[in-house]
Design brief:
The protein is α+β, with helices and mostly antiparallel strands and 401 residues long. It has 6 helices and 20 strands. The N and C termini lie far apart (83 Å).
Length: 401
């Protein structure tokens, strides 16, 4: 028993020693952090001092070389600049310290007088927002409903009733009684961004435009280049203004522009230089483009148009096919719409009823439009200038849906 008691005493002593070591370690860590902060402050002050001296030297040499100063005057200016830089480096910590004390005092007085809630108040000489928050990934939630971005529910209980549309997180599941209605509303909101109507073909005929690419080029010191692109697909731009031939055309353009609300809503555009699956002089046929190969399982195929030159081929997805222009073939045999396959004109997706056999070529022929939007919210028209041959610029840019 005596041995056990002695062992317990030794364990207690070891625990006390460990506790003292922990406290000593914490104190040492605190001193290191304070030392690190001091070194950082010293580095900043040295940087300020160095920049001040360099500015003084530059000014003195400029005056000596360009302004014809005497050497003595230039050296005097250098000395004055060094003195000002040293004084500024020495006085800044003092002014910052007293300024912080004054700001804390004013903040305490104002917070005691004004009825700001928790998390709001008056800080550093300005009124701060009620919400504690900066940038947040989603709206705060609670008993009062989903709050507005950056606002806590307790501080903003009526956030959901301010007339501002609430957008829920994409990864949030909601299987309540209103979930179906909300999903339908979301689909309507998405569909509202694109109007399935074509820009008047008579106005797009004669327009100027075509595809553009984005290439980032870095020229190395040895003269070689590194080229890269962030775009997998090209993007088309057009100018509809050059095709206007009369004031009636201008009126038609303005009506279309107002109905799309400027840049807000997209629409279809007929690119007269490239709107067929075949050559412009030919009629689309069911075997113009190979849109996929069967594997016995796959039934969905995206309409595409291939642009080949040499050994390289660019495959362009086609999303806005023209109604009643699409022809689908399977292994050389034509297929019937509504019997053998279905077509989604909004996405250009072809769904075949029976999966094509292994390596069977699925082909298509079609006309298509380009999904675009106006690239400006302003159209300026002058009747006098128009009659003199000056047409307005109406930029149009392709959108990705």
């Amino acid at each position: 028993m005596d041995g056990i008691d002695q062992f317990d005493d030794q364990v207690d002593a070891l625990a006390q020693s460990l506790g003292g070591a922990v406290a000593l370690t914490a104190a040492f860590d605190g001193e290191l952090k304070r030392m690190q902060a001091t070194v950082a402050d010293t580095g900043r002050e040295v940087g300020v001092l160095s920049r001040g001296i360099l500015r003084g030297l530059r000014s003195a040499f400029d005056g000596l070389v360009f302004d014809g100063l005497k050497l003595g005057d230039a050296l005097k200016e250098v000395a004055e600049s060094m003195s000002r830089a040293a004084y500024s480096a020495a006085i800044n910590p003092v002014t910052n310290h007293f300024g912080g004390l004054l700001a804390q005092s004013v903040e305490g007085v104002v917070n005691g007088l004004l009825p700001f809630g928790d998390g709001a108040g008056f800080a550093q000489g300005r009124v701060m927002p009620f919400a504690r928050g900066g940038i947040v990934s989603q709206a705060a939630g609670g008993s009062g409903g989903r709050g507005a971005r950056g606002e806590r529910d307790a501080e903003c209980p009526d956030a959901g009733r301010r007339g501002v549309p609430q957008i829920r997180s994409a990864d949030r599941r909601d299987d309540g009684p209103g979930a179906g209605a909300w999903r339908a509303q979301s689909l309507r909101r998405i569909s509202m961004t694109f109007h399935d109507v074509r820009f008047p073909a008579s106005l797009s005929f004669g327009s100027v435009g075509g595809p553009e690419r984005r290439t980032e080029i870095v020229t190395l010191q040895n003269g070689f280049e590194e080229r890269n692109t962030p775009w997998a697909q090209s993007r088309r731009r057009y100018d509809a203004g050059v095709s206007l031939r009369s004031l009636d055309d201008v009126e038609q353009l303005l009506a279309f522009f107002e109905a799309r609300q400027g840049q807000l809503h997209g629409f279809r555009w007929k690119d007269w230089a490239d709107y067929k699956s075949c050559l412009p002089s030919e009629v689309p046929g069911a075997e113009d483009q190979v849109i996929g190969l069967g594997d016995g399982v796959r039934t969905e195929f995206q309409l595409v148009k291939s642009y080949a030159s040499g050994a390289q081929t660019y495959v362009r997805p086609i999303e806005k096919a023209v109604f009643n222009s699409v022809l689908i073939g399977l292994a050389g045999d034509p297929m019937v719409l509504g019997v053998d396959y279905d077509l989604d004109l909004d996405t250009g997706l072809v769904t075949i009823g029976t999966a094509p056999a292994e390596a069977a070529a699925v082909t298509a022929g079609f006309e298509f439009d380009v999904p675009v939007r106006f690239d400006t919210d302003r159209i300026q028209v002058s009747v006098a200038s128009f009659r003199a041959g000056d047409v307005p610029s109406v930029p149009v840019v392709e959108i990705r849906l």
